[in-house]
Design a protein that fits this description.
The structure is a homodimer of 87-residue chains. Chain A has 87 residues and is of the alpha+beta class. Chain A has one domain (2-84): Mth169, Chain: A (2-Layer Sandwich), CATH 3.30.1280. Chain A is 32% helix and 41% strand. Chain A is built from 2 helices and 3 strands. Chain A has a 3-stranded antiparallel β-sheet with strand order 2-1-3. The model of chain A has no long low-confidence stretch (mean pLDDT 94). Strand 2 of chain A pairs antiparallel with strand 2 of chain B.
Chain lengths: 87, 87
């Protein structure tokens, strides 16, 4: 099956998030108030071919561990959706 | 009201996406096959205080236009969820 995969990688709570702080400080100068707790992460989207959802999730977890995320400072949340049969 | 906001910023179709290409090329060498169409974007999460959802969405659209995204090469998708009353 083909899966549409989204992996959100974001800084763990308590880990510095300089890009978010910069945005939070810049917004009031541009006239936007009322924004708090800005956190910036990455969102990876891709297609994955796998036998079933269980295998697909396991493979994406392994990818996160080995390449996509740094578990010391980041967490990865995985969303999967079947979008078709294997061609 | 307080809104939990997520803004996904991703490269437009047809715009170079070097980080995604690098990941796509690296995965087979690590033993992962069957991954296609990797695209890497940003996901911003923050809290916003606004009168109602209409105003909240309008303010986030303005933020995207002025600071968060570059409309020439990126698209921004906004998700809003009310999470509480104004303190």
């Amino acid at each position: 099956m083909i899966f549409s995969v989204a992996v959100e990688i974001r800084p763990l709570e308590g880990i510095a998030n300089p890009e978010g702080l910069t945005i939070e400080r810049a917004l009031p100068a541009l006239g936007f108030s009322g924004v708090r707790e800005v956190r910036v992460g990455k969102l990876l989207r891709f297609e994955l071919e796998a036998a079933d959802e269980h295998h697909a999730r396991h493979e994406v977890e392994q990818m996160c561990e080995h390449l996509l995320a740094n578990p010391v400072i980041e967490r990865a949340d995985i969303r999967l959706e079947a979008i078709g049969a294997t061609k």
